[in-house]
Amino acid sequence: MTKSKAFKEAKALLNTDDLLPTLNRIYYNLIDATVLRKDFEEAKYLLEEGNRIANKLDYNTYLKSDYWQVFRSTILHAYTKCDMCNNKSNVVHHSNYKGVLFRERLGEDVRQLCFSCHDDLHNGGVKGRIYSPCNPPCSIEDDEQDELHCLTKLN
Ligand SMILES: [Zn+2]
Ligand SMILES: [Zn+2]
């Protein structure tokens, strides 16, 4: 059994997937705190709380969260060009997902890519950089996540 598969099964045993509604509620409380009440102390707390919960979720479950769905489509609407080639962006790729879920920074932890550049990343070195396959896979537009592995920069 691969390490990631063992990790996946351990998470399933711990039933952490049922934390998804909790994460969604934290997200809506966060919007309420920031947009309506401008309570940034509480917002900071909710962000940390959401981050803790998100890191316990199975990655594919996290990708279904309301937070990620909104964040992802917001990025693709605001940044319509691929970060690498300027074609239309289709995919929000996690270049880093360890410990950053629910508070990813665009450009640091995630970047918008077209399908083609995303595929290039899957195939190894791009533009002189070395990439290694990462698990779990990142979010892509269609329901192909399980088929594809995203890649993480090695340094
Ligand atoms: Zn591209
Ligand atoms: Zn990817």
Description:
The protein starts with a helix and ends with a strand. α2 (about 20-35) packs antiparallel against α3. Helices cover about 45% and strands about 10% of the residues. The protein is mostly helical. The protein has helices spanning about 5-15, 20-35, 40-55, 60, 65-80, 115-120, and strands at about 90-95, 110-115, 130-135, 150-155. The radius of gyration is 16 Å and the shape is flat. Strands 1-2 form a two-stranded antiparallel sheet. Strands 3-4 form a two-stranded antiparallel ribbon. It has six helices and four strands. The relative contact order is 0.12. It has two domains: about 5-60, no CATH class; about 80-155, no CATH class. The chain binds zinc ion (2 copies). One zinc ion binds near residues 118, 138, 150 and 151. One zinc ion binds near residues 93, 118, 138 and 150.
Salient structural properties:
2 domains, mainly alpha, 155 residues, binds zinc ion, two-stranded antiparallel ribbon, 9% strand, disordered C terminus
